[in-house]
Design brief:
This protein has five helices and three strands; from the N terminus they run H-E-E-H-E-H-H-H. The protein has 139 residues and is of the alpha/beta class. 9% of the residues are buried.
Length: 139
């Protein structure tokens, strides 16, 4: 964060070429996320521009940040990434893959401040879709 767009592009072009030359398993790039940049120091760039620099035979390209099922599916179908990474959504939805496959509601009501706090609260205590439905019936 804090680099100009030109510096960002040049730096990541070089880095990705070098990582790919070393046959690293994957490169994961996170899209610019304004909510995580309150000081507005970051630069929004098209992360998919780096896809062409990656030799898919040895190195895979993972895209991250603020994807939903529809957007992620489109990116994969268009060949812009090899995988979509869901971090926070997996914590808040222990059955995220099944929810996406079954087109079920995804829990977006989570508290990132508790994700890695050292206890189960906000990390391993989120319900599955089935548990949510059972809770609704019991109410």
């Amino acid at each position: 964060m804090g680099m100009t767009e030109k510096d960002t592009l040049e730096t990541f072009d070089y880095l990705i070429k070098e990582l790919t030359n070393r046959r690293i398993a994957y490169v994961q790039i996170t899209r610019y996320w304004p909510a995580r940049d309150p000081a507005k120091r970051g630069t929004a760039v098209d992360i998919f521009r780096w896809r062409k620099l990656i030799n898919g035979e040895y190195t895979k390209f993972f895209a991250n940040a603020e994807f939903n099922a529809e957007d992620g599916t489109k990116v994969l179908k268009d060949g812009l990434a090899d995988a979509i990474v869901f971090g926070r959504l997996y914590i808040a939805n222990p059955d995220l893959a099944q929810r996406l496959i079954n087109n079920q509601e995804v829990n977006t009501n989570f508290n990132p401040k508790t994700f890695y706090g050292g206890t189960e609260v906000g990390y391993t205590d989120y319900p599955t879709y089935e548990q949510q439905q059972q809770h609704k019936i019991q109410q």
